[in-house]
Design brief:
Distance between the termini: 175 Å
Oligomer: single chain
CATH topology of the largest domain: Beta-lactamase
CATH superfamily of the largest domain: DD-peptidase/beta-lactamase superfamily
């Protein structure tokens, strides 16, 4: 009895173990079935959903920057180009997780640690923040190699201007996003700016790009713009104008060189200038293009247009004479005077000696509406066709508002305003046998069809008359160019100060054409407020004109039209003893 009871007690633990083993195996089997089922559910039924979620977290659409178009001079020399640079950006969410790294990162970026910490704290709910833009690629890579979490790189482009301040006000500049802001960069921004592309990239959990998956859209680079500028003449004009400003301690100055045959701007320079590569110099007073935006009263340089209007009227001829006696003229309550009584003067003499009395009589003899129409056809009072941003139209008041004194003073360049470019275009009309061609800042492959502004014979007569101004008896002798016949006119205008014309502030002007036998260039030089003693246009602006034209003639290989007298060998003289 006792042995049977012992065997039953031994079998009970064995059954208990078997039961527990079965329960454990059952649980493991059930768990395995659950895992298999979950795997099947994820891999089969939820596959598309999970792939979409993964892509949403790791696949991103990135921008592919487009290269902005190049600006060149007429001969292909680069005036503006885009250089590749790297921009570092960060995720404020990730950066905020390692605040101890921010001072080190700030030092690597050359930033103030306190400023960077404030920026990160202020954008902690965002995923994007610029850290430093337009870095040298090597410097940016050094920061990336340091392994700062949440720091990423973006390829961008930065504009570079090889000619610097020589073309600064003409070419203009772009902002940090490579969009045109001034000058040709703004005028032709639609052509220059490219269209960025897009691509799919795979990022890791730290946001770093580990693979380019697919290009969605290829970037389209901007168009190249070939300007009308001849960089050689631009450098020449810039050098001469800057030297004149320094010599005469002038406040500012501008010079424009036009190709008479095509209407192209071969050079356009201003002083003071600025370097567009240095954003610290981006001040409106320095980067505005004075040759196109600034207005001035042209003074006597305007007289040829009034004489042209007189010839157009038919009342006056090339050989007509004007009675300037006794050297003064009263109009209303104002007395107009000449330095000397020229008596019965020819048109040659009126222009060469710059007679205000003779010019006033010419203007007063013409119907106001007729005079206004001729001046308007010359482009006075309206913008040129340059398309340059911010171009001024100048001022030519309606003829109905002209009183006799206004008409008389207009004859010698007061009571109206022009830009240097407008004045250059007007002189180009005289040089082109009375034909006005559109002013162009772009290279012109074929001369455009012009519009006849005045009769060809009257334009040729004006060139002949203006050649006397640069002769021995004229006010523009210092504008002469050895080997070339030059035609032009000086101008010295008083500036308005405190509501009246100042006797201490002047604008010195010379506008002219060369070579006079068959004009190719129209050049205007304006020097504002020379303060070193000399202030007349013939003394200040005319020599700059001479240097620019002389150099441009050699650059363009224009043959001389005036023989140069052979220089005499110096003779040795022996002084006798006292």
């Amino acid at each position: 009895m006792s042995r049977g009871k012992g065997r039953g007690q031994e079998q009970q633990p064995q059954r208990s173990f078997t039961l527990r083993w079965g329960v454990v195996c059952g649980l493991l089997l059930a768990l395995g079935l659950v895992l298999v089922g979950r795997a099947v559910h994820l891999q089969v039924f939820s596959k598309d959903f999970l792939i979409g979620q993964a892509q949403a977290r790791h696949l991103r659409t990135a921008k592919i920057s487009a290269n902005r178009g190049v600006i060149t001079d007429r001969n292909g020399e680069t005036l503006a180009a885009s250089m590749p640079v790297d921009t570092l950006w960060g995720s404020p969410r990730e950066l905020s997780r390692g605040p101890e790294q921010l001072p080190v990162l700030a030092k690597a970026l050359g930033l103030d640690p306190a400023v960077l910490a404030r920026q990160v704290a202020g954008n902690v709910d965002k995923d994007f923040m610029y850290l430093r833009r337009h870095m040298n690629p090597d410097d940016a890579q050094a920061v990336l190699d340091a392994g700062f979490p949440g720091v990423h790189v973006l390829r961008e482009y930065r504009r570079y201007y090889p000619a610097g301040e020589v073309t600064g006000q003409l070419v203009g500049f772009t902002n940090i996003d490579d969009a045109g802001q001034e000058g040709m960069e703004l005028a032709f921004d639609e052509w220059l700016r490219g269209h960025p592309g897009r691509k799919l990239v795979l990022r890791d959990r730290l946001g770093r790009v580990i693979e380019d998956v697919e290009r969605i859209e290829s970037p389209s680079p901007g168009r190249e713009v070939a300007s009308s500028i001849d960089l050689r003449i631009q450098y020449l004009a810039y050098r001469e104008l800057k030297a004149a400003v320094q010599k005469h301690r002038a406040q500012s100055a501008s010079a424009v060189v036009l190709d008479v045959q095509t209407g192209e701007v071969l050079a356009m320079v201003n002083q003071p200038s600025y370097n567009p590569n240095d954003r610290a110099q981006y001040l409106p007073a320095r980067f505005r293009n004075r040759a196109i935006t600034d207005l001035f009263e042209p003074g006597s340089s305007f007289k040829p247009l009034v004489v042209a209007a007189a010839l157009e009227s038919g009342q006056w001829r090339r050989d007509s004479r004007v009675d300037t006696s006794p050297g003064m003229l009263r109009v209303a309550n104002k007395i107009i005077e000449d330095e000397k009584n020229l008596g019965l003067a020819s048109l040659d003499t009126v222009l060469a000696r710059s007679s205000n009395v003779g010019m006033a009589k010419l203007a007063l003899s013409l119907p106001s509406d007729q005079l206004w129409q001729v001046l308007n056809r010359f482009g006075i009072g309206r913008t040129t066709s340059s398309g340059f941003p911010g171009e001024s139209a100048g001022l030519l008041s309606p003829w109905e508002n002209w009183r006799p004194i206004a008409k008389a003073t207009l004859a010698y360049g007061y009571g109206l305003s022009v830009t240097p470019l407008q004045l250059a275009q007007s002189y180009a009309v005289l040089a082109a046998d009375g034909v006005m061609r559109p002013v162009s800042l772009l290279r012109v492959d074929h001369p455009p069809i012009g519009r006849q502004v005045i009769a060809a014979q009257n334009a040729r007569a004006m060139v002949d008359l203006l050649e006397h101004v640069v002769g021995p008896e004229g006010t523009g002798q210092r504008a002469a160019v050895p080997g070339y016949r030059v035609a032009g006119k000086t101008g010295t205008a008083r500036k308005v100060a405190a509501g009246s014309y100042s006797t201490e502030r002047y604008t010195a002007v010379f506008a002219g054409l060369a070579p006079a036998s068959q004009p190719r260039l129209a050049v205007v030089v304006v020097v504002d407020e020379p303060r070193a003693g000399e202030y007349f246009g013939g003394a200040v602006a005319a020599p700059v004109f001479s240097q620019i034209v002389g150099g441009a003639m050699r650059i363009l290989a224009i043959p001389p039209d005036r023989p140069v007298a052979p220089s005499r060998s110096p003779q040795l003289t022996v002084a006798s003893a006292p």
